[in-house]
Amino acid sequence: MVNTRKPNAVDIPDQTGRTAVLTGANSGFGLAVTAAPAQAGAHAVLAVRDA
Asked: CB 22: neighbour CB atoms within 10 A?
């Protein structure tokens, strides 16, 4: 049987002790995915052009 379910933020394994650098995090898709690594325990660094 083929798994056709799309992955989501719940599928991210524990990221405790890791650092995630997220580019374009101030708008659009970058902003939409920003919370997922942090919720999984990673230290999230947001790389943006304009504060």
From this structure: 20
Give residues with Cβ within 8 angstroms of 26, minimum separation 6: 46, 48, 49, 50, 51
pLDDT, block means (10 residues), the chain with 51 residues: 74 92 84 86 88 65
Q: Cα separation of 46 and 25, whole Å?
A: 6
b/e code 29-42 from CB counts within 10 Å (16+ = b): eeeeebebbeebeb
Q: Check: pTM over 0.85? Answer yes or no.
A: no
| The pLDDT value given to residue 4 | 80
Sort strands 19-23 and 43-47 into parallel, antiparallel or unpaired.
parallel
CB hemisphere CA count around 35 (13 angstroms): 4
